[in-house]
């Protein structure tokens, strides 16, 4: 451990921060439908998910051992490159959280790694075909696979279960949904917590603190598991709201079908050798469940914004990663500049998020339609809405639609 | 560039079949329980429906257990 340098410590801390944002970002995957259908109270849901994530983190180290091998050449990777990659991934995760869009944390991480590697070692060090087969194609396939399954399952459950009503049915769907959400959480813990373990281990190897080809040390497993569990428990409520209420309105049967399809697709994909992003799978299954119910609607405007965010995830994280890497390349002070920049932007994003707080208390109030209605009322009938508007924008004379703007996220343009 | 269509196809097939199967089983179970609920409300009983319901739930529980074993493995 004598070579445990400052940069290595920075990388480890940043990796844990990424792990935190990862848990925070992906709580929605396991728990959004459970929360929106009322199967579990919001706080209970995130607590359960956090515990299962933590448990999942200890179950195996397979994923951790494979994360670094394949996408980029690990020879000649310096800790600074990993640091730059993490900066890109964290910032993208926070930005998408701010606008409440589910996007893949793994894609953000890969994007950051790719960008930083290109900036450091040139385009040759990135395996382009791996990029297409492991990143682009799965992103298109995942929502289709999970969506079709969820749609058919929903349709079937409504046809079959026409006679299923009353307390017993409600209780049944509730239990089923909790069970499948638990499976998703557990799978998430084994996958995503281990990605961070893999990254930290890669950094330790690159920095010479542990021997190449060694398993993650115990303190790495423990801290990564705790970071992701903590992030999960804090809960990315904005994303939960989009996933649970923003894409479509879910009834308990739909929630159950969506969650079952998601759990099945995630497990099938990770064990049949075609890995799909959890986020993409869950989003797809939620939309499929929305389409499967007669009279169910999918809000395609929200879905489109989400697809755009998916498309941007990799290049955006790559760009930030590349920029961060070129700055760290200037020397130790460059690394310091990037660290300060990361902290400052995270703080800024958090600050902006406080303008419109989303937490356990209002996670199930979907504001988008309300926002539209409010805007319409404000435009059509200024007098009744005037008071509120005047209060909020005291110095602005015209009833500007500013106060309602955050409800229909304008930052969706990203 | 080699795209593993076979793996993608099997993920698609397995997801579809397992999801639809599980949801169908579970819905049958829920149906059984609500039939019993109705029967009890009317003073009768529905032994067969309940047995069937628990058989369905047991199959679902087995699937969940298999899922956990896949995660742990």
Unreliable runs of chain B: none
Work out the count of structural domains of chain B.
Answer: 1
* Biggest beta sheet attributes of chain B: none
Helix content of chain A: over 70%
Biggest interface, CB < 8 A: A-B, 53 and 38 residues
User: What class, by secondary structure content of chain B?
Assistant: mainly alpha
Number of strands of chain B: 0
The number of helices of chain B is 2
Order of helices and strands of chain A: HHHHHHHHHHHHHHH
The helix-strand sequence of chain B is HH
State the separation between the terminal residues of chain A, measured CA to CA. Answer: 43 Å
Gap between N and C termini of chain B = 30 Å
- Residue share in β-strands of chain B: under 5%
Membrane topology (chain A): Multi-pass membrane protein
Pfam families (chain A): PHO4 (PF01384)
Protein name (chain A): Phosphate transporter
GO molecular function, one term (chain A): phosphate transmembrane transporter activity
């Amino acid at each position: 451990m004598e070579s445990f340098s400052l940069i290595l410590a920075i990388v480890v801390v940043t990796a844990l921060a990424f792990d935190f944002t990862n848990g925070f970002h992906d709580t929605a995957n396991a728990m959004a439908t459970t929360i929106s259908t009322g199967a579990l109270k919001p706080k209970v849901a995130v607590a359960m998910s956090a515990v299962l994530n933590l448990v999942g983190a200890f179950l195996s180290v397979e994923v951790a051992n494979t994360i670094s091998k394949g996408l980029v050449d690990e020879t000649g990777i310096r800790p600074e490159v990993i640091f730059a990659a993490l900066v890109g991934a964290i910032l993208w995760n926070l930005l998408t959280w701010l606008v409440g869009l589910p996007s893949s944390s793994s894609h953000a991480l890969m994007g950051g790694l790719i960008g930083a590697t290109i900036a450091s070692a040139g385009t040759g060090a990135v395996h382009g075909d791996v990029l297409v087969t492991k990143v682009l194609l799965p992103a298109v396939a995942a929502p289709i696979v999970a969506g079709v399954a969820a749609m058919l399952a929903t349709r079937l459950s409504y046809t079959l279960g026409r006679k299923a009503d009353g307390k017993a049915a409600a209780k049944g769907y509730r239990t089923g949904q909790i069970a499948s959400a638990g499976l998703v959480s557990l799978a998430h813990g084994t996958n995503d917590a281990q990605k961070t373990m893999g990254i930290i281990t890669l950094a330790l190897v690159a920095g010479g603190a542990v021997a190449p080809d060694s398993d993650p040390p115990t303190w790495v497993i423990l801290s990564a598991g705790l970071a992701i569990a903590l992030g999960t428990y804090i809960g990315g409520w904005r994303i939960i709201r989009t996933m649970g209420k923003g894409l479509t309105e879910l009834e308990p049967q739909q929630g159950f079908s969506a969650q079952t399809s998601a759990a099945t697709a995630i497990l099938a994909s990770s064990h049949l050798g075609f890995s799909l992003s959890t986020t993409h799978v869950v989003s797809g299954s939620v939309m499929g469940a929305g389409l499967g119910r007669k009279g169910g609607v999918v809000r395609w405007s929200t879905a489109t914004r989400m697809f755009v965010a998916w498309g941007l995830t990799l290049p955006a994280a790559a760009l930030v990663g590349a920029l961060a890497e070129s700055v760290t390349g200037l020397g130790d002070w460059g690394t310091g500049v990037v660290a300060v920049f990361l902290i400052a932007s995270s703080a800024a994003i958090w600050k902006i998020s406080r303008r419109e707080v989303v937490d356990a208390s209002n996670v199930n109030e979907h504001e988008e339609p309300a926002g539209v209605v409010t805007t319409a009322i404000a435009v059509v009938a200024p007098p009744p809405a005037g008071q509120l508007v005047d209060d909020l924008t005291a110095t602005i004379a015209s009833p500007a639609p500013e106060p309602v703007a955050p409800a229909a996220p304008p930052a969706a343009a990203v | 560039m080699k795209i593993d269509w076979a793996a993608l196809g099997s993920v698609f097939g397995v997801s579809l079949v397992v999801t639809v199967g599980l949801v169908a089983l579970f819905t049958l179970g829920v149906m059984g329980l609500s039939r019993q609920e109705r029967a009890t409300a009317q003073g009768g009983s529905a032994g067969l429906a309940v047995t069937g319901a628990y058989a369905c739930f047991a199959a679902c529980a087995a699937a969940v257990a298999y899922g956990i074993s896949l995660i742990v493995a």
